Amino acid sequence: MKLYQIQIFVLVFVHSTLCKEISTLESCPLSGQPTQACKVVVALVACEGERIPGHLGTDLVFKGSRQEDQLATLIKSIVYTKSRQGINYSPDFVNLEFLIFSNKQDIFENLRRKISTWNKTYTENMELQYHDIRYPAGSECVSAMFRPCASFRIFLPQALPKTQALIYLDTDIIFFRNILYLWQEFNKYTDETIISSPKEWLFYRKFKSQKVPVFNSGMMLMNLSRIREISNWNSVFFNLCDKNRKYFPGPQAMLSLYFIQKPESHVTLNCTWHPMNFYEPRFTTRACNLHKYGISALHGFQGLFHMSDKFKIFYNAFRGANMTTYDGKDKSIFKSIINEIKSSRLYCDTVSNCSYVKRAVSKLMK
Length: 366
Prior knowledge:
The protein is 40% helix and 14% strand. By secondary structure, the chain is of the alpha/beta class.
């Protein structure tokens, strides 16, 4: 066997061993702090196809290339912030396990090729796994809602029978704060809590007259073990869909209605994980105190990362970041965002607004 063949074999063997070690680790504790090697499990759903005709919203095509781009940018933001932001325990033994659910394995393979070029400091404590989308029997109404596979998040407890808990994320999110801080939100669960998510800033038409809150299902901490103990979990959503399909634009509405009926099952994440005031036309409200606490994450719902110049500043900063080299003290992504905000004047219709947004980002550089 030639030397270069031996080298390739060793690299593949080491990588496989590392992945096996991560996949067999226990999830990080849901209360208290980890004292040994563990993993934070993140579930992502990325499917290619068309929005179902006849449902609320226009019939848009969701191409695999856009899903791949958003997936890579989301994961890049997670590993970048994890490597640069400290927490009150060492993150070195906390691993990241990304579970990619898709109807096209090409999406996963292209994502894996992109990440393979990153510096090993970013990738040595992370693992990617591919999972096919398999809806349970009787889910025809639910599976046909909104974007392709969007409702699959509801059925993650059954799709992952051995997983205790995870963070579910839509692909159009970027992180500005260490994801370990989000995992710590499990500490706030009561004995009855099954899911936590941010409060949404919209009301759906059916709910508006009732003045009830809607929760954002694009970021959810899910205790899968507890959900599996709910024997009628699937049938609840089957029935909701059958009775209300003309009102529901997607799974978020169904989940919100479930939590309205069972408020003890849900805990609301603090507003920095979905800063509602950041999406308003004018950024004058201080309700979330972003200038004091910083932005934890931004959601690019309805294509904002691709269509809004204001949101492109944040998305493109992470999308274009060079991950082939590593400098733990480098926070150039945050610096480039601040410089772009200042030079573009997009957020600077008033001196106060410009200063407010810059402080919200710069808070995370400390």
